[in-house]
């Protein structure tokens, strides 16, 4: 959803406050980046050919305005901009920037899950067990019903689960 659509959901005064806060943040960030070399700040300078990056940027200029005006999420705009181009440096910059978490909510969630898993009643659990439980909870997208259906089809997984031996199940690709 576009930012402007999200802002329309707020009362006018609240939307104006949010817009002003973001504008202040944006100006502060730009001021900071202008004072130093942005690529150096991003710590990717050693991986980029700056001359090629400039050439790649110039090659995308004719398409930029058309793409910017589309009402699609930012990630999709970048995807459209870089699609069908040979822009390894520009792609590296975009990948790096999109890899920066916008919030620390995912980290907070992991700590919350860890606190819930490592209770006084479960204080003898190994670090490996708690780690495995958290990995499943954060990375597994099946509902209980979906996983049950999946597990019934996976004979190797069922045999390993019934066994008293330590096991590692390799996924078939």
Strand tally? 0
Q: Please, what is the average pLDDT? A: 81
The helix/strand order is HHHHHHHHHH
Beta-strand content: under 5%
Q: Helix content range of the residues, please? A: 55-70%
- How widely separated are the two ends? 35 Å
Q: Any key phrases for this structure?
A:
173 residues
Structure description:
This protein is mainly alpha-helical and 173 residues long. The protein contains ten helices and no strands. The longest helix has 24 residues, at 12-35. The chain is extended and about 60 Å long.
Task: Provide a concise account of the structure shown.
With 173 residues, this protein is mostly helical.
Layout: helices, strands, pairs:
Blueprint: H1 3-7, H2 12-35, H3 38-42, H4 50-68, H5 74-82, H6 88-98, H7 105-117, H8 127-139, H9 144-153, H10 155-162
